[in-house]
Amino acid sequence: MKRVRLFSGKTILFVMLICHGVAAQQTGSPIFSPWKAGYLDIHQINTGRGNATFCILPDGTTLLIDAGAIDPINWRDNKPRNNPILPNDSRQPGEWIARYIRRVMPVKQTSGIDYLLITHFHDDHVGTPKHASRAAAGGYKLSGVTELAEFLPIRRILDRGWPDYTFPQTLRQDSIVINYIHFLENRKIPAERFVAGRLNQIRLVHEAGKYQSQFSIRNLAVNGDVWTGKDEDTRHVFPDLTGVSANQQPNENMCSAVMVMRYGNFDYFAGGDIQGVLPYGAPAWHDVETPVAAVAGPVDVQLLDHHGYADSQNGALMKALRPRVFVVPAWAVSHPGPAVAERLFDASIYPGERDVFVTQLFPEAEAALGPAAAKLKPETGHIVIRVQPGGTSYQVLVLDDADESMRIKAVYGPYQSR
Fold first, then answer.
1. Sign of CA dihedral 219, 222, 226, 230
2. What is the pTM of this model?
3. CATH code: domain of residue 272
4. What was the pLDDT predicted at 9?
5. Which of 19, 58, 87, 124 gives 68 a disulfide partner, CB atoms 3.0 to 4.6 angstroms apart?
6. CA–CA gap between residue 16 and residue 35 (Å, rounded)
7. Phi and psi of 399, rounded to 5°?
């Protein structure tokens, strides 16, 4: 595995970068090159305010997983959050995400995003109307997903609650969900429920015939339903909730949509905010990572569950997935937690090298991590996984998130797919 550091515009550097799928400006500074047919690009977009993963599938089908915008007021202490909006606060996260996507969107794609998957209804994944400064003509507030749609059309949305939004209890009392439903009703965007076990509910829609034998997305879990590993069968890992006390009801994170994307020998896991490390006294079924681990299989790249928060990344999941590359979508000082970081590099869980990329690392987080911080890859920013045609190998590119230049800070790879 090679790593390319970007220090100058010398000819030799330019040649190396072209070989690694990037281009150079006339000044010699390296910039990200457009997607090409047959490649799979997975962009972890960093706005500093929540999750947004934009995927360009081999035939040009586009998929956005989440478009978050956290409440600027921390609900825990009612104080303003200190983490800045990236690249700056002249726009809100939804607009920044839309602008990023427009820069990397396939040239032939003029009709917007083919799919938007909302893993669960938390502000850092869908946006919140609280303290939002603007409203749409339909009256709903613009934040995250609802703001992004003002700048970029969305052809179809999948979420965990459509059409009734009643699991595990009514969600229509939550301001985030109320605002989102109002948005759906006004914009009349086709929507459907993400269904565990389904193969290719998210499918190639442009030139499927060229790649359908190599590419697939398997829905692993949602709302306590987990794929069994056979056909599209599922089992429900939550108990009958009748009589379950309010403080032990499934929380929003536990209900997250979970998926594996496969392209040839390459596999990518995204688990939303599912949890697997429980506090003392919590019922065992609150651990969603372990039943998911039983059917997930090994992958090349994992988007860290719950941003690497302390309740995520248990040993069962890591032993099953055995990723070569981890991507941490961080926006808080707890991302990743010290115990989680230790597990990521623990060779007793699974052997072999692993590289951990973090979109941003707060000084407080770095101090808390101690020696583990030095094991993280030093560059932060937008993290892009670029998979070669056929899924044989892939690279990790770190892009500058301080502006919209798409300047490449570092290139890692190629890694060989499993």
1. negative
2. 0.94
3. 3.60.15.10
4. 35
5. 124
6. 18
7. -105, 145
